[in-house]
Amino acid sequence: MRKKIHVPQHLAKIITYIALILLAMAVVVPVAWSFMAAFKQNHEFYGNPWILPEKLYFQNFVSAWEEARMGEFMLNSVITTVLGLLMLLITALPAAYVLSRFNFKVKKILRALFMGGLFININYIVVPIFLMFADADKWLKSVGLKSFFLNNIFVLAVVYASTALPFTIYLLSSYFITIPKAYEEAAYIDGAGYVKTMIKVIFPMAKPSIITVILFNFLWFWNEYIIAITLLTDPKGAKTLPVGLMNLMKAQNAAAQYGRMYAGLVLVMVPTLVFYICVQKKLTQSLNIGGLKG
């Protein structure tokens, strides 16, 4: 028989702490370096990359915001993300509630379809989506109307919301199932209908899972690149922040304006960091509650 190797408890803790510190450094150091590089002047990039900036050169942010249109791109990303989240929640919350609490004839079929959507990678179907939108725009132009489906941030938000539905409904319905039905029965006795019970009773109790869904989808919508660059084809038209940042990186690499490039990168990172800091406590609570109920 093989002897089991016994690792002392204090040694296991040391190894764990070292691994966590290395993992934290792998995440924090690149982010900190990007923030530091965003305040450097161009000639400072040709020396030691770890030297602090000579002074805080805010002109990089001004140039990225105004000359590189990063302000316009950020507004487009805010509109797209907010619209996508609103449409997603308005659709997914009632759908998840119905699938988790009621029995009807096509329930199994609908659940199977939504579960099947979890295994579809959006990157594999973005080209068919583009072709369908392109054909629809050609038809609109043939009848004397303007194109609508391509280069439209509202349509982009619809695509984001629809592709996020399977995961969102799966996560929400799994949480709704854990809520005792006694709360709904008490609401029915007090005269509340299905809709009022759903909004006033179930949704407040499911707040941790809703916050988790909002955070995950916010991060995906905000940082998404492939769908945006495929559906926003006009070089002078609307662009989201990741697409604008990629164009800025290409332009600044050619022009050797690295400070402006990193300033654009910081503009992309800051909203996600601020949003995560604001909700990280609620997110941790939701994960702990989900673990206890699971």
Automatic annotation (TrEMBL):
Question: How is this protein named in the record?
Answer: ABC transporter
Keyword Cell membrane appears in the UniProt entry:
yes
A Pfam family hit: BPD_transp_1
Q: Could you tell me where this protein is found in the cell?
A: Cell membrane
Among Gene3D superfamilies, the record links this protein to:
MetI-like (1.10.3720.10)
Q: Which PROSITE patterns match?
A: ABC_TM1
* Boundaries of every ABC transmembrane type-1 domain copy: 74-279
Task: Provide the species name.
Answer: Lachnoclostridium phytofermentans
The GO cellular component terms are: plasma membrane
Q: How does it sit in the membrane?
A: Multi-pass membrane protein
